[in-house]
């Protein structure tokens, strides 16, 4: 953010509007704990998973230090931090907000089709979509997408544009950890014995096929469902009838698909649909 006023002045204005604020130093990270609070010497709970019981007057403990109190923001411990601050951050959850941090153009394109429109703030590489309502924070909920709400902080980059709407269930669902990939049981179709054994001759042929399918999936920029199904279909049409495929091979394909945002259920459905299309 290119601020025309001092970060402390921006912080005071935001605090007056109800946003709990904190200073960020170089690298856009919170200031470290003071000597008394290092290594939990103040008695704070481990890993800053909840604030306190520390009541340190300095901007310690990252998001847990965020405040709306003007007296704290201008206090001597904070004043020293503001003199070094690069920008202002806020604790979204503390204001009853959730920020969906979209880190690149692909993430923005996904959001425009998957999420309700709301207030939007441009960032250096993408956008912040801000919803009314707090939830658990979680990073990397899908490629290029983080959720910042409770126990997290977001950089303040301006008021944004658009009308803020209530936090939708589709965003809450993103923070729910998906179960491990479901590995389908392979059922190779019986074929007449071939002279010389497997027609693939060497493991390198199968490895190349799996690697090409993984690359095809991970390189996809759009139409992920269609790409995953096509890759599964190609692998099964070449390698699915001779018994060469193993659970490890299938797990690699599922992992590639889930890295693009596919759920375990969608992976299983695509795999089974491909088998059905091939009469397997």
Provide a descriptive summary of the structure in words:
The chain has 280 residues and is an alpha+beta fold. The chain contains 9 helices and 9 strands. Residues 188-197 have low confidence and may be disordered. It has a 5-stranded antiparallel β-sheet. The protein has a 4-stranded antiparallel β-sheet with strand order 2-1-3-9. The protein has helices at 7-16, 70-73, 76-84, 105-114, 169-174, 203-218, 224-239, 247-259, 264-277, and strands spanning 21-25, 29-30, 87-90, 97-102, 119-122, 127-132, 138-142, 145-148, 154-155. The termini are far apart.
Please provide a brief summary of the model:
The chain has 280 residues and is α+β, with helices and mostly antiparallel strands.
What layout of secondary structure does this protein have?
Elements: H1 7-16, E1 21-25, E2 29-30, H2 70-73, H3 76-84, E3 87-90, E4 97-102, H4 105-114, E5 119-122, E6 127-132, E7 138-142, E8 145-148, E9 154-155, H5 169-174, H6 203-218, H7 224-239, H8 247-259, H9 264-277
Q: State the distance separating the first and last CA atoms.
A: 57 Å
Individual helix count: 9
Radius of gyration: 25 Å
Helix content: 25-40%
| Main beta sheet strand tally, sense and closure | 5 strands, antiparallel
Identify the strand order in the major beta sheet: 5-6-4-8-7
Mean pLDDT: 83
Order of helices and strands: HEEHHEEHEEEEEHHHHH
Defining key terms:
14% strand; alpha+beta; 280 residues; five-stranded antiparallel β-sheet; 9 helices; four-stranded antiparallel β-sheet; single chain; 35% helix
């Amino acid at each position: 953010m290119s601020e025309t006023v001092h970060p402390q002045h921006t912080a005071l204005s935001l605090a007056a509007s109800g946003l709990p604020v904190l200073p960020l130093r170089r690298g856009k990270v919170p200031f470290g704990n003071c000597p008394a609070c290092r290594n939990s010497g103040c008695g704070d709970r481990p890993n800053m998973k909840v604030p306190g019981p520390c009541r340190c007057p300095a901007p310690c403990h990252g998001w847990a230090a965020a405040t709306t109190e003007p007296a704290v923001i201008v206090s001597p411990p904070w004043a020293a931090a503001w003199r070094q601050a690069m920008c202002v951050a806020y604790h979204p959850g503390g204001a009853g907000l959730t920020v969906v941090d979209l880190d690149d153009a692909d993430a923005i394109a996904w959001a425009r089709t998957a999420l309700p429109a709301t207030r939007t703030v441009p960032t250096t590489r993408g956008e912040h979509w801000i919803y009314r309502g707090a939830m658990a924070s979680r990073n990397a909920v899908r490629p290029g997408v983080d959720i910042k709400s409770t126990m997290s902080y977001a950089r303040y980059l301006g008021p944004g544009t658009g009308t803020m709407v209530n936090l939708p269930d589709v965003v809450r669902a993103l923070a729910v950890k998906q179960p491990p990939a479901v590995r389908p049981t392979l059922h190779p179709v019986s074929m007449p014995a071939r002279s010389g054994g497997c027609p693939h001759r060497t493991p390198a042929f199968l490895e190349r096929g799996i690697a090409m399918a993984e690359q095809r999936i991970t390189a996809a920029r759009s139409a992920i469902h269609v790409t995953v199904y096509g890759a599964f279909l190609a692998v099964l049409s070449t390698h699915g009838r001779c018994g060469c495929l193993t659970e490890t091979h299938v797990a690699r394909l599922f992992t590639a698909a889930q890295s693009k945002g596919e759920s375990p259920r969608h992976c299983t459905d695509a795999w089974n649909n491909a088998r059905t299309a091939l009469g397997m």
